[in-house]
Amino acid sequence: QLTVFATGCFLLCSLFPHACDMPLSGKLSGAFLLGFVTDTLVFYVLSLFRFPLSEFMVYGVTYGLLFISYWLMNKKGNSVAKAFPIQKVTATSILCHLAGLAAMLFFFLLIVAYPVGIVDEVHIFLLKAKIFFDYRLLNFDYTEFSTNNYPIFWPLYLTLQFIFTAGDHDQIAKLSSALVFMSSLGLIKSIAM
């Protein structure tokens, strides 16, 4: 998750310099979501060419993306310090940030505490992610009873998380779901302001 966030942060700084004007929650959320989409898209394209999702390839490509995005950021003359400057702290801003953090923590714990039980999550996304993890390829042979016309970005991202943690644990899927959900809320909040 950290490499995905760092990749997104470097890409945000290099490709979208106007994002520096967004509130901090928008920058952090946008960086995580941009890293999530970039990482998953690269692995999707590699999977279409039947490259196996081995540990070596997943680690190599993930860290390769991290270094390429860092190089792009430096080439454009940007830095993380420019995009995320230290802001002046007031009592009101601290209270607003603490209230937002408490609400996000509440929802995060709510998502992680409950067992996996939603039909789409168990029978479509999690099933596909576990099959992709077991075969290390985009294999649809055993998913015909689930809906194969659902997008595969989410199962592919969960597969990458399973490879990073060396096991197909349902808690990893829930943690990833919570992070993407919280990032989406943060981005929507910052755009709405």
Question: What descriptive keywords fit this protein?
Answer:
single chain, 193 residues, mainly alpha, 0% strand
Morphology call: globular
Mean pLDDT metric: 77
Number of helices: 8
Helix coverage percent of residues?
Answer: over 70%
**Largest sheet, if any?**
none
Radius of gyration: 18 Å
What is the number of E strands? Answer: 0
Quickly give the structural class: mainly alpha
* Stretches with pLDDT under 50, minimum 5 residues: none
Taking the alpha carbons of the first and last residues, their distance comes to 27 Å
Write a concise synopsis of the structure shown.
The chain has 193 residues and is an all-alpha fold.
What does this structure look like?
By secondary structure, the chain is mainly α. It contains 8 helices and no strands. The protein has helices spanning 2-15, 24-48, 55-75, 80-83, 91-113, 119-135, 153-165, 170-192. Helix 2 (24-48) crosses helix 7 (153-165). It starts with a helix and ends with a helix. 28% of the residues are buried. The mean pLDDT is 77.
Write the SSE topology.
Elements: H1 2-15, H2 24-48, H3 55-75, H4 80-83, H5 91-113, H6 119-135, H7 153-165, H8 170-192
Helix pairs in contact: 1-2, 1-3, 2-7, 2-8, 5-8, 6-7
